[in-house]
Design brief:
The complex is a heterodimer of chains A (241) and B (345).
Chain A lengths: L1 E10 L2 E11 L4 E5 L6 H8 L5 E8 L2 E2 L5 H7 L1 E4 L11 H8 L6 H14 L1 H5 L10 H13 L5 E5 L7 H16 L3 E6 L2 H7 L2 E6 L2 E7 H4 L3 H5 L12
Parallel strand pairs in A: 3-8, 3-9, 6-7, 7-8
Antiparallel strand pairs in A: 1-2, 1-4, 4-5, 9-10
Helix pairs in contact in A: 3-6
Chain B lengths: L1 H27 L6 H32 L6 H22 L1 H5 L4 H33 L7 H25 L14 E3 L2 E3 L1 H23 L1 H11 L1 H6 L4 H23 L9 H16 L4 H21 L5 H15 L14
Antiparallel strand pairs in B: 1-2
Helix pairs in contact in B: 2-7, 2-8, 2-10, 2-11, 2-12, 3-5, 3-6, 3-10, 3-11, 5-10, 7-8, 7-10, 8-10, 11-12, 11-13, 12-13
Classes of the chains: A alpha/beta (241), B mainly alpha (345).
Chain lengths: 241, 345
């Protein structure tokens, strides 16, 4: 579904990615792991068109999408879900969701999709007329994922859905991500929480210094010593919790 | 920390109240003070205020959408006035309107003038944004070096537009004889029809803008882009298009305000800069970047200025708006509506 070949990109004149190769199969969950500043989020940003691809190709569903305008990429069905703090705080939950379905043409689909999101996250239904600024961290993350689902995407890319959340809420959100996959979507999840991510995913990539360092079935990766090495210098224990 | 923040706001509000009371007390001691003059000051203050509000809303919209203060906004106001005047004169001289609407040719022509000022200034704004500002905003706005460049370019654009108008319409004052009928009497105040037009059109447009921003899909997109361009990109909004729309709407509002003011004062090429500064003061008083704040700030500046000019001294009329701005910046730097919704940590 998504094929990244020799991706080179960065911010301004600073090169972050030095030729990353990745493949995400249809209806799978793939985890992209790595420490801070290794280029995890940069890959997502290049895929969603927020930063320019300098070299290499990003192929989505048989089409090259590198350097397309971001809204065209959303229309093609590839949506990036940012961390929970990236909502529109001065708008209500419902308005945030409507913005997620901005590319939809018919009002009927929009309302259907809102119902669909409320099925995944009933908590949002209770909070639908509140301002997003009043939500808790977990609810914000739910809102972000829900907003990503609004445009009928074929694939969503989640940027650290577990960041700064209580373990119970992380579990809840990961269960929902699994449910989303079962409903036919492909998921690429970028994570710091290695164990949780590998439990959820089918396949994993570990990125280091802008290139894919290790890859493999997530069950194998979980016990791979090199994963620990490429991860967080001295914080290797996180992979082994 | 939150508690301390709240306390400061309380102090700010108390100080604002004290300032308002002192001001009201001072003007109530004026020898001119009576019910009649108070009514007149109120109506004229609100009328002037809605004009300041319309221009200030444009400045705030551009500020939230492009992260820059548009210092050429006054010129769009001036060009709007000239557009309205030209269209009106063309229609009346051609006697076409007169043949169709013999009884109401004045206001039919005026409405068409307003419409053209709105549309042409909107399109002109989009053109300016696409041709001049787009290449600059690509490199970033706000506090970046490129952002400073855009601000300087705003001044430059202002001078260029002023001189273009100078070439086309020459520097003399053009009277705008809009034939709108006799003055009417509202609650004991005799009001020229031009003021009534300003009031009614101003409030209608402000209401329409509110409806547009809060009830339509495009308005939702405008608000989203104003908050964050990155998230707007990710939800599939065509951000460059929406930035053009934002700039166009802001310029259209300025053009409309220009044609509304035209018949009351005269249309001169220099009319832009003072309205820019006063609208800027209104936006600051209401809270920079807030749209309801811009309208409320416009009313505040309009009322303050008119009452000062009437009760204290009319010869320093233009200074009062800035006096108010300085007072508000000293006491309540965020303005009335400047407190943004904070995220819970």
């Amino acid at each position: 579904m998504l094929k990244i070949k020799n991706l080179i990109s960065g911010y301004g004149s600073v090169q972050i990615l030095n030729g990353a190769n990745m493949k995400v199969d249809n209806q799978s969950i793939v985890a992209l792991l790595g420490g801070n500043g290794t280029g995890k989020s940069t890959i997502l940003k290049a895929c969603s068109g927020i930063i320019r691809t300098w070299k290499g190709s990003i192929n989505f569903n048989g089409e090259d999408i590198q350097n397309l305008p971001p809204h065209n990429i959303v229309e093609k069905g590839l949506v990036q879900v940012t961390q929970g703090k990236d909502v529109f705080p001065a708008m209500t939950v419902l308005e945030n969701l409507r913005l997620g379905g901005f590319t939809l043409k018919s009002k009927q689909t929009l309302n259907d999709n809102i119902e669909k999101v409320f099925n995944y996250f009933p908590r949002l239904n209770e909070r639908k007329s509140q301002l997003a600024a009043t939500l808790s961290g977990g609810e914000l993350q739910m809102l972000c994922i829900g907003r990503g689902l609004m445009s009928n995407p074929k694939m969503i890319m989640l940027d650290e859905p577990s960041a700064a959340l209580a373990p119970q809420i992380v579990l809840d959100i990961f269960k929902n991500i699994n449910k989303i996959r079962k409903d036919g979507l492909t998921v690429l999840v970028v994570e710091q929480n290695v164990r949780m991510a590998l439990l959820l995913a089918d396949y994993g990539y570990v990125i280091k210094d802008g290139v894919i360092n290790v890859e493999g079935e997530s069950k194998k990766l979980m016990y791979d010593e090199s994963v620990k090495d490429s991860y967080l210098g001295g914080g290797g224990t996180t992979a082994n919790v | 920390m939150f508690k301390g923040f709240k306390l400061t706001r309380k102090v700010e509000n108390t100080l604002m109240l004290v300032f308002t009371l002192i001001f009201l007390g001072y003007i109530s001691m004026s020898p001119d003070m009576n019910l009649e003059s108070l009514k007149g000051v109120l109506i004229i203050g609100i009328t002037v205020g809605i004009i300041y509000g319309l221009v200030a809303v444009g400045i705030s919209l551009i500020y939230t959408g492009l992260d820059v203060v548009n210092f050429s906004h006054g010129e769009f106001f001036m060009l709007g006035a000239f557009t309205g005047l030209t269209v009106y004169n063309f229609l009346i001289d051609g006697e076409l309107i007169y043949a169709i609407f013999p009884d109401a040719y004045g206001w039919v022509g005026y409405v068409i003038g307003l419409f053209f000022a709105f549309v042409i200034m909107g399109l002109f704004g989009v053109l300016i944004e696409r041709v001049f500002l787009r290449p600059l905003t690509k490199k970033g706005g706000g506090y970046t070096v490129a952002g400073m460049g855009i601000i300087i370019c705003g001044f430059g654009l202002s001078v260029v537009l002023l001189n273009l108008a100078y070439i086309i319409w020459n520097p003399t004052a053009h009277p705008f004889h809009a034939d709108l009928g006799l003055p009417i009497n509202i609650g004991g105040v005799t009001l020229p029809m031009t003021y009534l037009w300003m009031l009614v059109t101003g409030f209608t447009v402000a209401g329409a803008l509110y409806f547009f921003l809060n009830k339509t899909k495009m308005g939702l997109g405008v608000r989203a882009v104003a908050h964050s361009k990155v998230i707007s990109n990710l939800v599939g909004i065509n951000v460059p298009l929406y930035i053009s729309i934002i700039f166009g709407i802001a310029c259209a509002l300025a053009g409309l305000a220009g044609t509304l003011v035209g018949p009351t004062y005269q249309v001169v090429v220099y009319m832009g800069y003072i309205i820019l500064l006063k609208a800027f003061a209104s936006a600051v008083v209401g809270g920079f970047g807030s749209l309801p704040g811009a309208i409320v700030g416009g009313f505040t500046v309009g009322l303050f200025e008119t009452s000062c000019a009437f009760f204290i001294s009319g010869s320093h009329k233009d200074a009062y708006a800035f006096l108010l701005m300085i007072v508000v910046l000293l006491i309540k730097p965020t303005g009335f509506f400047g407190v943004q919704v904070k995220m819970k940590a």
